[in-house]
Amino acid sequence: MTTRILSSTTSDPLTSSTNLTRRPRRLRRSEGIRTLVRETVVRPEDLIYPLFVVPQSRATAPIGSMPGVLQMRVRDAVDAARRAYDSGIRAVLLFGLPESKDGIGSSSWDPAGPVQLAIEGIKRHVPDMAVLADVCLCEYTDHGHCGVIVDRNGVKDVDNDQTLPLLMKQAISFAAAGADFVAPSDMMDGRIGAIRRALDERGLSEVGIVAYSAKFASGFYGPFREAAESAPQFGDRRTYQMDPANAREALREVELDVEEGADIVMVKPALSYLDVIRQVRDRFPLPIAAYNVSGEYSMVKAAAERGWIDGPRVMNEILTSIKRAGADLIITYHAMEFAESYR
Q: What angle do CA 134, 138, 140 make, to 5 degrees?
């Protein structure tokens, strides 16, 4: 027999519990009730799983600063995509590490490059998986920057307009291999319009563009640069990635990308820019993606390994906060871990 303990009452109307007609705690009493009234729910279908693909000459290998994340050969990337799909994830984002690098990233449009081969393999073996291909030159250049380097009065910088034709070639190559979306992350002015025109002129109008519209020059990218082997060999990327202090500028960037033909817009990073995600959500009707970046992932893993936090609980809280802020899609290295725990 269950005994219910009743709270005592007093004759004082100011302290009497019988005067509490509004009790929000009624909706928190059990997990069943909490689930019933939960406002924000993250599903595996909301997640995009990033994969790092290396040439066949290299072995699949772990990334030291990102526990649980691998640099993968094409065959292993295809297998990872299949497992992800079976777990409920419906999209992957591919990054490539080339056999060789040069000053303009020419290996990025090699039809036999690791990303191109991975796209073809995933679409052959997991045809319903949506494949996104990151469009940027930093993984493919020997200097680690996202475009063509010029010398202006002794100062090296990335030339915006010389970079656009190279991004167009890269995007066309990924689209021709079968990518559903190309995802320009370089932050060159005008690149969404240039890529859209290039795709349309070649009969690839069905290929969508996921624009890294508000990509900030963040300190949270460190582990990614190990994973993609893309650290700049000099300087930094602040002349083309956004100042973390600027939210109004982020809205201008998103507006330009929408006008130029983006199908989905993105805010990157996610966790320190939840306010930007919300402002983009309130202003634009397009689907919004947010990138839960490498540094955000690695901090959770490092703290969990030391027993300082409950890793799975924090993972869920972070992903929920990103969706609650307004993101429709979340790119995250937690994707498989989340999907497997969701089942």
A: 90
- The residue annotated as part of the active site, out of 123, 156, 169, 215, is 215
Specify the 3-state DSSP secondary structure of 329: strand
Q: Give the global pTM.
A: 0.93
Structure confidence by residue, pLDDT tens digits, 257-278 = 999 999 999 999 999 999 999 9
284-331, pLDDT tens digit by residue? 999 999 999 999 999 999 999 999 999 999 999 999 999 999 999 999
Phi, psi of 247 (to 5 degrees): -95, -40
| 8 Å CB contact between 144 and 231 | yes
The structural domains of the chain, with segments of one domain joined by +, span: 41-342
Active site residue 215: yes
Choosing from 101, 123, 169, 268, the catalytic residue is 268
In single-letter form, the type of residue at position 17 comes to: S
CATH number of 41-342: 3.20.20.70
Average of per-residue pLDDT across 40-65: 97
User: Is 10's pLDDT higher than 80?
Assistant: no
323 given a catalytic annotation: no
**What tokens appear for 174 in the block?**
């990924």
Report whether 66 contacts 297 (CB < 8 A): yes
